[in-house]
Amino acid sequence: MRSQELLWRTKDPEILRQLGKDISGCGLSGIINIRGQRISGEAIRCSIACQHDRGNGLGGGFAAYGIYPRYRDYYALHIMYDSHDAKNSTEDYLDHHLSVELGERIPTRPVPNINKPPLLWRYFVKGRKEEEGDFEIADDEYMVKIVMGINATIPGAFVFSSGKNMGVFKGVGFPEELAEFFMIDEYQGYLWLAHNRFPTNTPGWWGGAHPFNLLDWSIIHNGEISSYGINKRYLEMFGYKLTLMTDTEVVAYLLDLLVRRHKLNLNVASTVLSPPFWKDIEKSDDKEKEAFTALRMVYGSAMLNGPFAFIFGFTRGMVGMNDRIKLRPFVVATKGDNFYMASEEAAIREICPEPDKVWSPRAGHSVIVELDRSVTV
Amino acid sequence: MKTFIPPDFRVYIEHERCRRCKRCLMNCSFDAYTFQDRVTPDDSKCVGCNRCAVFCPEHAITISNTPIGYREHPLWSMKARKDIWKQSETGGVLLTGMGNDQPFRIYWDHIVIDACQVTNPSIDPLREPMELRTYLGKKPDAVSVKMDRDGKLELATELLPQIEINTPIIFAAMSYGAVSLNVQKSIAMAAKEFGTLWNTGEGGLHEDLYHYGSNTIVQVASGRFGVSSEYLKIAVASEIKIGQGAKPGIGGHLPGEKVNLDVSKTRMIPQGTDALSPAPQHDIYSIEDLRQLIYAIKEANGYKPVGVKIAAVHNVAAISSGIARAGADWIYIDGFRGGTGASPTIIRDHIGIPIELALAAVDERLRQEGIRNSVSIIAAGGIRNSGDVAKAIALGADTVAIGTAALVALGCSLCQKCYTGNCAWGITTQRPELVRRIDPEVGAERIYNLLRGWSLELKEILGALGLNSIESLRGSRERLRGIGLNEVELRILGIKHAGE
């Protein structure tokens, strides 16, 4: 808002150049402390609030890692319901498939602009595999099945967070209002993501806000996936059910497919999503050329095409990347043990005025920041 | 017997313009002209190929449809009447060339493509890289990649051979015999120059074309014409031909008039005999037999890809699933508009289904079964321009194949008389004086130009869609919309209606 006001007062082109903001979709912000030290949610709130103009009040949200140390061995399910019926059916479903350690309302404060929120509940659960065949699948796989089961079959219920020792908080409104609503300042996390949304293609509903999450994967995204159609059909082939009417969902599920199921490391997975051009592959040495070519041949349908910048978070780190020709802004900075990623440098300097290093990563190149190996979370 | 059939065409000569150079007489291979003081046409012999009109230096020739005054009847069209007259005079099976010419719905013309506005920028192909490269072959679902000490990637999965093409357009199978050697030379040269593939069809591979091997698909059809160990080894891939869009359920058809010495050598059959391929492959009576043949050919061709070509018929989706599971590297689906050198008219016009619907059904079925990666899809049968190519790829094709379009580039005017062997354009003929009408160098240039033009247009379409690589369009039906289609058609095509 501050810059907007200045903008109205001045016509000086130099000031305009410095202050003028591109209204281009969404705003992103991410912070990680690689020593695993926990930071209050206040920092990320300030950073995303600085990017107010990148949203239109139809969606905002946060992902916070390290916030539930007491329940670190439990999957924390955050679920939104549009009715008590949906809640009752879901709780029956949970009781049937899982051991629920604790179920409670997600604490909120009344905020004037946040209207008609859904029922917001969280459950700390462990898998209880009863059905034949379930014993053969890993815990994570089982949880994915449960989450997909609820989202696809129970009307009015939506699991929007399902990782361990982390949680997503999101809804319709500006992110700073949602931070107030969800009492973000009262949580402490070592990794934070925040998103400010300017929805154009998909209706503004609580479930459609970012971050998108599955297990400990969370993703925030600015842009439009022009290859959505084929990415979706590709994922469906592997049993993913895409229910959210938005294209960011495909990014989350693609990462799940590539990293968790196909065991590609993050670097390789990001190469799949934003692969080098053939002309650049031609320049690499024979072995690398063979590897890149195979990745593009086999995973062509997983390539993300169109303008985007996204940040995804997971238990041990954070990855940010751009599309192949950098059609969306994306800035990275470091200060001591803290790494920052955002749509705008201003959003970083708002909370870290003198970073050690600031740079704008090259098109298609991912920036991967992981917790120090010595850190346990 | 007096014929009751009125001529199809009326040849009109402006004698004030005509300088009596007789070029029309030389050019007409159907003997429709005689010269007695001045050029005199015989309308009944004219096939409407327009060779004479194009080559008349004075533009003195106009060919038009005969304006005939028979009483109209919606059921008893002129075609219906003429066909009966023809059969009552000959007692034979009516033959024709080219693809189905009946006015069935052309789905391409009821599909439109998306473009970017505001929220995602379109991309300018003249300023940004734009990629059309495509790989044909069987791909695994996943690969594993190791990282060496220097952080360099190294592939840890062995892939089956893949064929790289520079544009998602290859050439359809057109056999030596059906077309002239100069046509095959033109196509093979263009394929090599552009970095794509051409297909021998079922007529064997002439020695002059051996050095195009790395751009050649050799076909193995039910007649096994010209198939030898060398033939299979020399090419980059083999293709088992089960069916053809213009004549599903029947075998290839080469009239003896077109089997000259060279054709007979290449096909390994006696000169002058009709080359009639059996309707089925007699060693394939079911899917398990196909599997055996695929692997037998792989043994013979050095484990290069083996594709399977089928005609688009009602049950094409289930058949394709079987073919994928039988181990084929690609499925080539030929819609009912696909061309032919010779086919019974009744078969051509009444059997088979449109490629648009067949392609959509096959791609969707393979995805439902989770095996789409294991096989490439080649769509053919009525691809007229780069718009059709883009739509086919968005429906799910890995590449399209073009046959008729390539022949049109060489001059073909779709007169449908390919089966006579008298093609005035020198395309579907073996008469030496007609074959000479195509200079392979010039022919190759025309076809290369066509590929180039379409490929540039494809890049423009991708750019408008905000994509910079063809694989992001492949199977992306979300970028298509239907116009004037009913719900069943939209469901089969897997697309929404415009406005949705």
Textual characterization of the structure:
In chain A, helix 7 (228-237) crosses helix 8 and helix 8 packs across helix 9. Chain A has helices spanning 2-9, 13-19, 42-49, 84-97, 139-153, 175-182, 228-237, 248-261, 266-273, 278-281, 286-298, 345-349, and strands at 27-33, 39-40, 60-65, 75-81, 98-105, 119-127, 157-161, 166-171, 188-189, 191-196, 212-214, 217-223, 308-314, 317-322, 331-335, 338-342, 357-359, 367-370. Chain A has 377 residues and is an alpha+beta fold. Chain A is globular and about 60 Å long. Chain A has a domain at 25-67 and 165-370: Aminohydrolase, N-terminal nucleophile (Ntn) domain (Glutamine Phosphoribosylpyrophosphate, subunit 1, domain 1), CATH 3.60.20.10. In chain A, a hairpin with a 2-residue loop joins strand 11 (212-214) and strand 12. Chain A is built from twelve helices and 18 strands. Chain A has a seven-stranded antiparallel sheet. Chain A has a five-stranded antiparallel sheet with strand order 11-12-13-14-18, with helices on one face. Residues 1-24 of chain A have low confidence and may be disordered. Chain B is an alpha/beta fold and 500 residues long. Chain B folds into two domains: 9-92, Alpha-Beta Plaits (2-Layer Sandwich); 163-497, TIM Barrel (Alpha-Beta Barrel). Helices cover 29% and strands 16% of the residues of chain B. Chain B is built from 15 helices and 23 strands. Chain B has helices at 23-27, 51-55, 78-90, 181-194, 229-234, 261-267, 287-301, 316-325, 345-350, 355-368, 386-395, 404-409, 432-435, 440-464, 487-493; strands spanning 9-13, 33-36, 38-41, 61-65, 95-96, 111-113, 134-136, 145-147, 153-155, 163-165, 169-171, 198-199, 216-220, 237-241, 253-254, 275-276, 306-311, 330-334, 343-344, 376-380, 399-402, 480-482, 496-497. In chain B, strand 20 (376-380), helix 11 (386-395) and strand 21 (399-402) form a beta-alpha-beta unit. Chain B is globular and about 90 Å long. Chain B starts with 8 loop residues before the first strand and ends with a strand. At the A-B interface, helix 7, helix 9 and helix 11 of A face strand 9 of B.
